[in-house]
Amino acid sequence: MGARLSEIVVESTDPSAAAQFWSEALGWERREHQPGAVPWVSASGDPQGHDLKLVFVPAREGHAPGNRLYLNAVGAELPEEVARLTSLGARRRSGGPEAPWVAMVDPGGTGLTVLPNRIDV
After folding, report:
1. What range does the domain containing 34 cover?
2. How large is the average pLDDT for residues 45-59?
């Protein structure tokens, strides 16, 4: 049997704000792991659950967050999803080539790309 992916750890300049953003963006409950009050989110909210968790940790001293997440906005049109994520605190990245997706940054400084609906879904 292969390994099971249980967590994706996201470096952030503001782990609490990033966790709150992703909680609202995904509709997942925000929790904290003790000790250290490390924020995380998952679909079940169950710390013992086997669903995927996003865990938010401080970026290393002197380093900007370098992670990049890709959010596939299934069930939403691209402009509406970008507007919704902007209302939750994300901002568009400036510059870059014209593309069918939108590059954004969450409140903790982690990049994300909002993709248009896939044609194979």
Report:
1. 7-115
2. 88
Burial class from Cβ neighbours inside 10 Å (0-12, 13-18, 19+) for residue 81 reads buried
Residue that is written with structure tokens 């609906």 in the block: 117
The CATH number for 22's domain is 3.10.180.10
H or E segment and range at residue 54: strand 53-58
**The pLDDT of residue 67:** 56
The pTM (predicted TM-score) of the whole model is 0.78
Domain presence at residue 120: no
Tally of domains within the chain: 1
11 domain-assigned: yes
- Whether 76 contacts 100, CB under 8 Å: no
Residue 102 resides in a domain: yes
β-sheet with 7-12: strand ranges across: 7-12, 53-58, 38-42, 29-33
Cβ atoms 29, 36 nearer than 8 A: no
Angle (nearest 5°) at CA 16 between 40 and 27: 55
Instruction: Give strand pairing partners of 102.
Output: 114
Query: What are the helix (H) ranges across the chain?
Result: 15-26, 78-87
